[in-house]
Amino acid sequence: MLDPGWLAALSAIHRRGAFDLAAAELSVTPPAISQRIRALEERVGMRLIRRGQPCEATPEGLRLIRHFDEISLLERQLARDLPALSSGPAPLRIAVNADSLATWVLPALRACEGDFLFDLVIDDQDVSQDWLRRGEVMAAVTSHPGPLQGCDTVALGSLRYLATASPDFMARWFAGGITAAALARAPSLIYSGKDRLQQTWAARIVGPVTLPCHRIGASQAFVDAALLGLGWAMNPETLARAHINAGRLQEVVADSALDVALYWQFPRLVAPALAPLTRAIRQAAAEVLVPSSAA
Fold first, then answer.
1. CB–CB of 266/156 below 8 Å?
2. What's the whole-model pTM score?
3. Right CATH number for 159-259 from 3.40.190.10, 3.60.15.10, 3.40.228.10, 3.40.605.10?
4. Tens of pLDDT along 267-292?
């Protein structure tokens, strides 16, 4: 059996990116962290951490981190049946897209804050499943239904996006209508290089087109930038609707919503331990997301 202290050190180094930060998190000295990693690597007979800036786990190290996360969740489940074993909330790392976090995920986390200490990885819904596949998170909100080996998938519904811009922006860039030429000139907004929503919507409206873009990595800043006329963007209807009703934003093309189906995925092994959070996720999603054919 592997020493849990060794595994905790491995996890902390990978997630904090440095031996000294891991030592501070675990309230031990940096030499103690080094000793734990040395002992673990000798025990398994392979290198588990790539030393650098930042330090990162090797694929074998990630497998052990996932094992440690699973053990922590299973022990938390056991503590529900044997309260004397409880040592407080279990750490839980989740991959979630920024728009879900800004619109519906936080109430679900709040409903379970006594059971878990959340560590959120913010990434695009198209790639969040990769974090789960690599073993770096224990659950993910993703646009991929799977199948992912060893995991369960719960369909949640679709997050509805509207192409929005300020009235001044519309008058400046789209006075002649929404054409491929106009979209190729008008600045758009993207969250990151992985964000394909604007490109997907534009292709549906006018066909393939290359969009000039500003990159803004925050959901509320996306809305604020659209309000200021910096660019047009796909904003969640939940965030944009009040501004549309007040005339501060308008749809670039009426009745052209883009629905992105979302799923909750997690390892089947820890499904019982995650059951309270899964219930909260489904309830919070049902209040905001629109039904989809997959849900």
1. no
2. 0.88
3. 3.40.190.10
4. 999 999 999 999 999 999 999 999 97
